[in-house]
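Example (one chain per record):
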Amino acid sequence: MKGSDPGSDRGIDLEVAAPLHREAIGWFLRYAMGLSAWKAYGDTRWALRVNPSSGNLHPTEAYLIHDGRIFHYAPREHALEERAVLSYEKWTAFLQGRQGFLVALTSIQWREAWKYGERAFRYCQHDVGHAIVALRFSASLFGWTLRLLPEWSDEQMATLVGVDRDDDRGEAEPEHPECLALVGPGVSWTPGAAAALAAEARSAAWHGRANILSRGHDEWPVIEQVTKATRYSGQLAIRKTQPPTPPSSRADDARASARQAEARSVEALYPRRLILQRRSALAFDGRTALPRERFLAMLAKLHPSLPPFDAFDWPPHVHLALFVHRVEGLTPGVYVYSREASVIDEWRSLMRPEFLWEQTGDRLFLLLPTDVTWAANRISCDQAIASDGCFSLGMIARVESALRDRGEWFYRRLFWECGAIGQVLYLEAEAAGARGTGIGCFYDDAVHELLGLAGHEWQSLYHFSMGFPVDDPRLTTETGYAWEVLANANQDVPAHGGPVSRT
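Predicted structure:
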């Protein structure tokens, strides 16, 4: 690997993957789940993180398993808190001769429910999708990749990271397992070792206890009901054969090969500076337009053959309905963007017959040329941020047949895919000098009415808006960690990189 700082603003020049040592893993966590900045207003001070969260409440917790040691990552301290040590022999047997480490994500739903009530479940799932992509892009800084491991059940994941232990629960908020990923220079995987490693974790000696953030809790039974209904019991067979994928043309094959080659050449597309400056916009100026070429390039980054979507083991289920306000060279109006070309014919048959379906870009179609600022505002719970930007959008997911064919557990994965799209758009906005924001409050029935959709096959699961921000001058910003200030001020002082390890 060229260069001593894997996250330099010069970009990343990797000849080989970085070794899986303590310092590199520390940088990996820093650029995925660490603090991006501290904000202050008067005497009030709060932290922002690299991975976005609804209301900055951060229900997503990260665990790391490396060399047979199970850690919890504490972002405020940039520390790994050791929870248990597994048999090294069992750990190496699990890896099956490969190099890598595991990252697990969990959700503490109360961190959303206290403020958002029933919406907390889907907000937590959006945040899981954000975090998966933050981890995937951070891994790319080191020449590593990341893949979710579908064979692990929720029960096995909970055992592996210790969130199912009665002795550890106490008064702390319940913590629900979400996903487990393998990170390393090569992550092809042969299933069959999950049960053995989970059993080893079950019999290990555990120490430490989760912090208690809130002692008062209101019950939201519907959240627990959905959580139980969507539990994952491990890799399940698809209940019904999926419709065959239409045969691709040679041109399609060539484009897919070109995208895969591009994916390999831009593994570290987003440098440290860009990753750390990501913010959620609070307001847009309502005037500045986004160049058409930039807008189309953003959409192209959502192609399922490109990172970070290689982390998932399912084909794309989420596509976009866009409300374009200020994009140079594009007529304002309602558009759709298909991440998979075969969806277009289906949508044509389901949506309003008066729509134009005028192609204005690769898989981008103008449906209705009109001023859609009022409609975008109204659909997103009367929020000006949906109408004052360059564009806003709804993420439209295939739901009914997906749950029927795969199982209720796939409901969570649909929200993860939405969160993944949102995180890509967040970083693309920063790269364009703009800013994005996820919108969790919207009227899905109104989206259906506008598009002419009926039934439950297609549902709007997440909204997003992008534009040029209006910053609040009363807020001050500081870097995420004091040791970074010291390292930048004195080049003779090495960057801290590696997390503190503590028991």
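Caption: The chain has two domains: 22-208+220-229, 280-467.
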